[in-house]
Amino acid sequence: MTLATPRRAPGPEHPGSGRTRPGNRITRRIPDRVRRRGLPYLLLLPALGFELLIHLIPMLVGLVMSFKELTQFYIRNWRTAPWHGMANYRVAVDFNAPIGHALLHSFLVTCSFTLLAVGLSWLFGTAAAILMQDTFRGRGLLRALFLTPYALPVYASAITWAFMFQHDNGLVNHVLHDQMHVAGQSFWLIGDNSFIAVVVVSVWRNWPFAFLCVMAGLQNIPRELYEASSIDGAGIWQQIRRITMPSLRPVNQVLILVLFLWTFNDFSVPYILFGRSAPQQADLIAVHIYQSSFVTWNFGTGSAMSVLMLLFLLAVTAVYLLVTTPRRRHARA
Fold first, then answer.
1. Rounded to 5°, angle at Cα 278 from 276 and 280
2. What angle do CA 105, 252, 240 make, to 5 degrees?
3. What are the chain's domains?
4. Which class for 72: exposed (0-12), middle (13-18), buried (19 or more C-beta within 10 A)?
5. DSSP codes of every residue in 79-100
6. pTM here?
7. Is 68 helix (H, G, I), strand (E, B) or coil?
8. Tens digit of pLDDT for each residue in 163-205?
């Protein structure tokens, strides 16, 4: 006599039971297309949260501070500072007054510095990237050397240039005066030459980034275009003008905008070179706002200047994108 063992009811773990787990039912309700498109945004949420925490909250705090009469008397508890309304902005844009006139001078100096530094950085980076396209011995070593200024920490590179620009024992005066006999020993960190010094350091730091971006863009240009143009009798300059530069237009549009924003906002290089008191010829707006806030202890006016600079950069970026977007669409068509 055999005893019949009772059958176990088919559970969710048996694939042939016909039952599905609740999690599987929820997963099946979500279309695969939605899951594929939503996964990248889900992965970006942590980075977006930290970005908002690091940038957005201090930006909002600075915006509130620009409407307060925040001086050294309220630095312990800035929320108790009296409400000042638009008075800080009126002081900043009153160009007939000393504070507004100094801000306008700093703004013009920064615009000149930015245009010159961005133009030279793009020119050197593009020229070096085009020259590095040909295969020759030692090309990899030269590429690594070209990227060295971009890889170095900003403090190390700027402080090295500050020593090189010293009047008595700096390398720049030693080469120009003692070796090449070009001119007498000059003061590079004060006076008119200070503007040249900060432009040189900025170009030295930023042109490798332009070189890297343009070199990456050149990899997407088919070699067949150059071969066909050479068969048709096109020279090197015609190839650069007709093939290379039009193909690099999307890369250059993004590159120039990024270089402009980086250079206009640059604080580290002028502060390391000149310290708290930058000469008038190199009075860049980032250091000028720092002086207005942390040297004169007028944080309300300094915050108002920062907001005005942010609005200017947003306006320039919006106009730039509006101008370049139709060109980009036309190039794709």
1. 150
2. 120
3. 101-269 (1.10.3720.10)
4. exposed
5. GGSPB-TTHHHHHHH-TTSHHH
6. 0.80
7. strand
8. 999 988 888 888 888 888 776 678 889 888 999 999 999 999 9
